[in-house]
Each structure stands twice: as C-alpha cells, then as structure tokens.
Design brief:
Layout: H1 3-14, E1 35-37, H2 40-48, E2 56-57, H3 59-67, H4 74-106, H5 112-138, H6 144-155, E3 158-163, E4 168-171
Parallel strand pairs: 1-4
Antiparallel strand pairs: 2-3, 3-4
Helix pairs in contact: 1-5, 4-5, 5-6
Length: 191
C-alpha cells in the first residue's frame, strides 16, 4: 500500500485530532438529503431504539450491515494494527481530559456538551475506525453508509440514524449548552 493510500485509509481516524469533530461548523459538507436534528432525546431514540417510526431504519442494523462484508477478512486483520496505532495517541492525550470531565460530572458542573462528548466519543472513534477499515478492504470509495457517516463527522455533526429513503440522520451538537469549537485535545483542564 502506498503512503497516499494509507493516508486516505487513515483520514477518518485522524479526525479526532482536528477541530472539526462535534464542531457543527461545516453544514455545507453534510451529504445531500441529511436530516439534521436539534433534539438530543430524539437523536438518541433514533440511535438506540429498536422500535422506530416507519420512515426510519434501525441504526445499529444499518451499521452492522455496512461492516459485515469485510469485518472477518484478512484485509481487515491486516489494517487493524495500523488503525489502532493511528488512534492510540488520541486516547493517550484524551485520558487526563476525560478525568477532568468525570470530576466535573461528579461535581455537577459538567455542561451538556461535555456530557455529550464523554458519553459518545468512544463510539464515534470506533465508527471512524470502521470507515478506515472499509477504505482499506473495499478500496478508496469505501462503503457508502460508512462514507456518509464519515461525511457527517467531518462536517462536525453526530450521525444517529438512517431514513428508509437512504439518507443519514444526524444531531447538531451546537445546540447543547457549553458547545465549543476546537480540537478536543485542547480542552481546558482548569475549571
């Protein structure tokens, strides 16, 4: 694999190192037809429920169906160490920030946005790892559902559902109290 190919493959797992993740700053980068929600309860319902309104599909099923064609392949096993190596520094730098945010939660001084990030960041990074794996296993165009998921994250939003008409649904984190734009690794630890 060339350096260019590896760069394209690892682009999704490098997103947590940027200021874009959860910024909601690039609405123009959302895929065409994206439904944007501003109600966190509705977003979490679409993300987690098995009983949805008829116009939506179960989000976990959509993601599982996207990943299943390549998950148990030799190509997936071959790229997994590179993906883990690329994301490991993020977790190393995130740990003291996470601990600060846990203390804020215990003191009841954590903002809605901080709670959102600490609750959903691990899932977001795991999903981005799947996008990277799909690009390696399936080629530079990856898998359409996972590429839509990446576009949503790259635009700064949180993917949380899927319409039956094949459009992704996302949540706009800028509506949360305490929302901030900037790299999560630059989060102020003193407060």
């Amino acid at each position: 694999m060339s350096d260019y190919d590896l760069s394209l493959v690892l682009e999704p797992v490098r997103l947590p190192f940027s200021e874009r993740l959860f910024s909601a700053a690039h609405r123009e980068a959302l895929p065409d037809g994206t439904e944007v929600l501003t109600d966190l309860d509705r977003a979490m319902l679409l993300e987690n429920s098995q009983e949805l309104p008829p116009e939506y599909r179960i989000w976990q099923d959509v993601q599982a169906n996207a990943v299943s064609p390549f998950y148990c392949t030799d190509a997936y096993a071959a790229i997994s160490p590179d993906i883990e190596e690329a994301v490991a520094p993020f977790w190393e730098h995130w740990e003291p920030i996470r601990m600060t945010l846990v203390k804020r939660r215990l003191r009841k001084t954590q903002t809605e946005f901080e709670n959102f990030v600490t609750t959903l960041l691990y899932d977001a990074v795991e999903q981005l790892k799947q996008v990277s794996a799909a690009r390696h296993c399936l080629g530079p165009d990856g898998e359409p559902v996972l590429e839509a998921l990446f576009q949503v994250y790259h635009a700064g939003f949180y993917p949380c559902g899927w319409h039956r008409d094949n459009n992704i649904v996302c949540f706009d984190p800028s509506v949360l109290e305490g929302h901030r734009v900037g790299c999560l690794l630059d989060y102020p630890l003193a407060r």
